[in-house]
Amino acid sequence: MNKNIFFTGAVVLIIIFASCASGAKYAPEPSAPMSYDPAGVGYSRDSARYAETERMVAYSVNLELSVKNTDETRKLLITQVSDNNGFIIRETDNYINMRIPSGNTDNFMKTARTLGKTENETKTGTDITDQYRDNVIRLENLLSVRTRYLSLLDIADSVSDILSIEKELERVNTEIDIMQGRIKYAELSVSYTNITVRFREKAKPGPIGWIFYGLYLGVKWLFVWN
Fold first, then answer.
1. Which residue in 182, 193, 173 sits closest to 134, CA to CA?
2. Beta-bridge partners for 197
3. In this structure, how many other beta carbons lie within 10 angstroms of the beta carbon of residue 140?
4. How far apart are CA 47 and CA 67, in angstroms?
5. Which of the chain's termini has less CB crowding within 10 Å, N or C?
6. Residue 98 to residues 43, 122, 128, 135, 196, Cα–Cα distance (Å)
7. How far apart are alpha carbons 135 and 133 in whole angstroms?
8. How far apart are CA 77 and CA 75, in angstroms?
9. Phi-psi region of 93 (alpha: psi -120 to 50; beta: other; left: phi over 0)
10. pTM over 0.90
11. Residue 85 region, left (φ>0) first, then alpha (ψ -120 to 50), else beta?
């Protein structure tokens, strides 16, 4: 009986701790948080330290071009995406949304501007530092909760206790997967600039338009001397 009471109390305490972990907020000086490793090694305490001293800013760029030929422009942009080690998210006849490594963004944009006349260009940045740190701490807490549940599972000796722990483990594992996804997406957003390029063909005058264009050139010749 005493063992069952102790076991039940331990489970209750872990559930309370798990609830706190899910709702934990960022502390100004976290103690060795864990972070997603883009190389695929896993989560490491040391790999998150750059987020403690540097701001994490996710940049987005929108470029609108007036071009001679949309098909040719699209092909040239696709080539530039590959040359700059980026990847395409979405592509249409006159629109490409892509991710370009932050270090190659300036080089890509410099080339993209030469493909036509720039009609509009905007660049925005979103600071995600606090959100990222908060998610890193939540993940570390959830991993600690999972470790405690696994320890309890090793000593559980009744079917009901095992089923109860496995149910909680499933819930915690789901939250861990979600948090890992958020961290990975945040790091992707910082290391790769989100660039959207829209391009349309330059307007060409019709038959009457060419007449007025000729008159314009004639009038210009009368009043303007080179």
1. 182
2. 63, 96
3. 22
4. 44
5. C
6. 27, 15, 20, 26, 6
7. 5
8. 5
9. alpha
10. no
11. left
Amino acid (one-letter) located at 174? T
pLDDT tens per residue across span 67-111: 999 999 999 999 999 999 999 999 999 999 999 999 999 999 999
Under a CB-based contact definition with an 8 Å cutoff, are residues 75 and 124 in contact? no
Helix (H, G, I), strand (E, B) or coil at 36: strand
Q: How far apart are CA 180 and CA 197, in angstroms?
A: 30
Q: At what angle do helices 129-155 and 2-22 cross, to 10 degrees?
A: 170
Element (H, E) at 117: strand 117-127
pLDDT tens-digit series, residues 111-151: 999 999 999 999 999 999 999 999 999 999 999 999 999 99
- Distance from first CA to last CA of the chain, Å, rounded? 104
Q: Where are the alpha helices (DSSP H) in the chain?
A: 2-22, 50-53, 70-83, 105-113, 129-155, 159-191, 207-223
Within its chain, how far is the Cα of 71 from the centroid? 29
